[in-house]
């Protein structure tokens, strides 16, 4: 919905002082229940929803519901239920959304309020569309359209748009084409100024937005019917990105639609025109829209912050002006008038000169800024092309090695040579895993600080794991690996994020191996100081490699830039040291180095760890089962099933059954007595969330763990809502995997835990 600028200022001002005027708002609520106005501050609600502040919007609506119930305000209660249902739909909590919308509809039915019924039915249709619950959609859609048509309401066209979306989501291309054609014909023949508008739209904007939406889906329908016919793309290419962007209001979902819009242009040039250069152009444009959504949210929040500051500043200036006017009113009327006239003329003159010189200066500044920006963009584009060239080489090298070594292992009969090839295969696999993780990590750390997941562990075990990870890479170059760790109590544990800290040492070790031709790589761990609660350790990673010149110290830890002081034929993505420095910030530490060119380099840093208590240390011990434990593994990938099955069978007292289909998994859990389920998330017939929800309908106690390659932070909320008890992120360390599995061999009094392998 679009608001006039003046209304937007009033809305935000009311939001800032909402808590100060709560009592007055309550009195207004009582007085206005018999009116048509929404009395729980609908402007504030719209603002919160627009900014995705859905939690605050929910709190506001719950307060309105409680207050309406207390004073028996039925109209306001119905509006509150309806608004809360729409907010919950936006949060994808469809079951609760349907519940609140039905409560609202019941109240409106009892009041015989047709306009209210029209709004609620539209909300239900939208919820069923988002949920893809087509059975309920089809049952309510005719009733809703009949009511909207009798009221001559614009809701009729909004419901029709949801019908078009329903056909799009259900791949009903023939109906999609017919309904979108019908929508366009009705819109072109309807004067929106004659409609009984149910909400405060700009009717012309609403009409144009709907036309753009129907054209969008009509274009997709034509293409879906026959992607190879160039004529079917005519409507698609008649739509412009800018008009479509304006119609969609450029939120996250609309950016996805823009991505789809450009994706079908990619299909046009791929299948209809066979023009790969143009096809690549549009697939890149499609990807860019996906990333624009995040930037749009950040910019929106920044703009809101600036607006709040301007409102407060304007209020202060207004109060100051009023005080000055009161003092001047005491002076002579004649003197006051003459002063105002002279001041006004002087102010106008000064303002004219001020804006003249300011405009002239701004033009010069803008020209300089444009020149600087153009130079910077050229440099960025050059760096981007160089980075993707490096990245292509770095990815292809281990992939080629893995493919070639697998072939050699298959062809080789000598066991000694097979083992040598296998060691090299593991080394290439480890390097590829570290490279991909660095790329993903660099992207995440650009936007947020790493949250450490601290668990009890031993530093010696972590360092030895790092050494085993890089051992084959060092062996292949003929380098000696050395390690020194100061002795400590065998029963002493520290709280450490194993994955994050291992990533620091592995990156430093691989970096040392990469730039060392002969000699050795050494990892030292020294105890610097300790007290009853903390211990400070100093870490050193030394090599006998090419070294670093002092003049390059400032760019060593910068992503991509550190490649500039190396030879063109050097390997590496340029991300490792940047990742190390960024992760150390999360440990409240920093890294430095000493180096002599052609003799070697020593990177060093210090971290203070908290000593684990006895209770925390005991918590890492696995629980032995009292009986044989039966585990069901659900995954559509046969290789993943084989690996997981073999890992489970390594654990004493555990047996395993595998299944590759979600629906069959539900039947197996019903028919057999399993102790634990390992569930993949991405499966073709039913995803892991839906399978878990179905199992929870008849079995609420069996532990269900997600075994997935997805980032656990991104899926944690959906996993918790579906009934998943814990998340294990692939790839994982076997001992950590074993510790999680065996922790469920005792009583199943496990609260829902959203934890990944990083937390172990």
UniProtKB/TrEMBL annotation:
Outline the extent of the Histidine kinase domain: 390-611
Gene Ontology MF term list: phosphorelay sensor kinase activity
Pfam families under this entry?
Answer: HATPase_c, HisKA, Response_reg
Q: Which UniProt keywords apply?
A: Kinase, Membrane, Phosphoprotein, TPR repeat, Transferase, Transmembrane, Transmembrane helix
Q: Using the record's annotations, give every residue carrying the modification 4-aspartylphosphate.
A: 680
Q: Which residues form the Response regulatory domain?
A: 630-745
Domain of life where this protein originates: Bacteria
- InterPro entries with a match to the protein in the record: CheY-like_superfamily, HATPase_C_sf, HATPase_dom, His_kinase_dom, HisK_dim/P_dom, HisK_dim/P_sf, Sig_transdc_His_kin-like_C, Sig_transdc_resp-reg_receiver
- SMART domains referenced in this protein's UniProt entry, alphabetically: HATPase_c, HisKA, REC, TPR
Q: Does this UniProt record's set of keywords contain Membrane?
A: yes
Q: Which reaction does it catalyse?
A: ATP + protein L-histidine = ADP + protein N-phospho-L-histidine
Pinpoint the residue ranges of every TPR repeat in the record.
78-111
What Enzyme Commission number(s) appear in the record? 2.7.13.3
Q: What's the top EC group for this one?
A: transferase
Transmembrane spans:
335-357
Q: Indicate what this protein is called per its UniProt record.
A: histidine kinase
């Amino acid at each position: 919905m679009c608001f006039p600028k003046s209304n937007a200022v009033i809305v935000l001002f009311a939001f800032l002082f909402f808590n100060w005027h709560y009592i007055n708002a309550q009195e207004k609520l009582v007085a206005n229940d018999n009116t048509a106005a929404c009395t729980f501050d609908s402007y504030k609600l719209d603002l919160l929803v627009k900014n995705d502040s859905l939690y605050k919007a929910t709190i506001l609506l719950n307060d309105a519901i409680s207050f309406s119930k207390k004073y028996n305000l039925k109209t306001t209660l119905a509006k509150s239920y309806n608004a809360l249902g729409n907010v919950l739909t936006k949060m994808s909590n469809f079951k609760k959304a349907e519940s609140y919308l039905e409560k609202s509809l019941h109240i409106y039915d009892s009041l015989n309020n047709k306009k209210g019924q029209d709004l609620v039915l539209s909300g239900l249709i939208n919820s069923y569309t988002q949920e893809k619950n087509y059975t309920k959609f089809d049952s309510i859609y005719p009733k809703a359209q009949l009511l909207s048509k009798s009221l001559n309401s614009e809701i009729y066209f909004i419901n029709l748009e949801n019908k078009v979306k329903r056909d799009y989501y259900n791949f009903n291309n023939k109906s999609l084409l017919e309904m979108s054609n019908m929508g366009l014909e009705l819109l072109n023949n309807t004067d929106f100024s004659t409609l009984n508008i149910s909400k405060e739209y700009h009717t012309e904007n609403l009409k144009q937005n709907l036309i753009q939406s129907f054209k969008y889906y009509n274009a997709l329908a034509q293409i879906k019917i026959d992607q190879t016919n160039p004529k079917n793309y005519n409507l698609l290419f008649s739509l412009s990105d800018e008009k479509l962007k304006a119609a969609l209001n450029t939120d996250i979902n609309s950016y996805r639609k823009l991505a789809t819009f450009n994706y079908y242009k990619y299909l046009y040039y791929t299948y209809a025109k066979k023009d790969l250069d143009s096809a690549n152009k549009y697939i890149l444009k499609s990807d860019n829209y996906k990333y624009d959504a995040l930037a749009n949210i950040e910019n929106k929040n920044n703009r809101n912050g600036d607006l709040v500051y301007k409102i407060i500043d304007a209020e202060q200036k207004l109060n100051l002006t009023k005080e000055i006017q009161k003092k001047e009113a005491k002076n002579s009327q004649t003197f006051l008038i003459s002063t105002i006239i002279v001041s006004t003329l002087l102010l106008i003159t000064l303002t004219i000169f001020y804006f003249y010189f300011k405009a002239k200066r701004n033009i010069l500044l803008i020209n300089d800024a444009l020149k600087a920006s153009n130079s910077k963009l050229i440099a960025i584009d050059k760096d981007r092309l160089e980075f993707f060239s490096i990245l292509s080489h770095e990815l292809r090298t281990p992939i080629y090695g893995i493919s070639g070594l697998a072939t050699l292992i298959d062809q080789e009969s000598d066991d000694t040579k097979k083992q040598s090839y296998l060691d090299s295969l593991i080394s290439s696999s480890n390097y590829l895993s570290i490279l991909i993780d660095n790329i993903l990590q660099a992207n995440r750390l650009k936007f947020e600080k790493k949250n450490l997941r601290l668990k009890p562990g031993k530093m010696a075990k972590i360092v030895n794991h790092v050494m085993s990870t890089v051992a084959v890479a060092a062996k292949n170059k003929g380098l000696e690996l050395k390690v020194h760790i100061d002795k400590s109590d065998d029963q002493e544990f520290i709280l450490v994020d194993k994955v994050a800290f291992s990533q620091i040492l592995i990156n430093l070790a691989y970096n040392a191996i990469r730039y060392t031709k002969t000699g050795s790589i050494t990892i030292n761990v020294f105890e610097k100081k300790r007290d009853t609660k903390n211990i400070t350790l100093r870490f050193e990673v030394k090599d006998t490699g090419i070294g670093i010149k002092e003049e390059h110290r400032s760019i060593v830890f910068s992503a991509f830039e550190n490649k500039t002081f190396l030879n063109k034929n050097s390997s590496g993505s340029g991300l490792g040291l940047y990742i190390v420095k960024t992760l150390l910030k999360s440990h409240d530490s920093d890294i430095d180095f000493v180096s002599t060119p052609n003799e070697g380099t020593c990177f060093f840093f210090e971290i203070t760890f908290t000593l684990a208590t006895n209770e925390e240390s005991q918590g890492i011990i696995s629980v032995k089962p009292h009986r044989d434990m039966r585990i069901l593994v659900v995954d559509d990938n046969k290789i993943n099933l084989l690996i997981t099955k073999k890992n489970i069978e390594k654990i004493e007292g555990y047996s395993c059954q595998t299944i590759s289909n979600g629906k069959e998994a539900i039947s197996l859990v019903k028919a057999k007595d399993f102790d634990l389920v390992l569930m993949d998330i991405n499966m073709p017939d039913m995803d892991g969330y839906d399978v878990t929800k179905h199992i929870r309908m008849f079995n609420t106690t069996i532990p269900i763990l997600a075994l997935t390659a997805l980032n656990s932070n991104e899926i944690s909320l959906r996993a918790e809502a579906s009934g998943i008890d814990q998340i294990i992120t692939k790839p994982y360390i076997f001992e950590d995997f074993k510790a999680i599995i065996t922790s469920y061999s005792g009583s199943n009094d496990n609260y829902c835990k959203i934890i990944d392998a990083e937390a172990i």
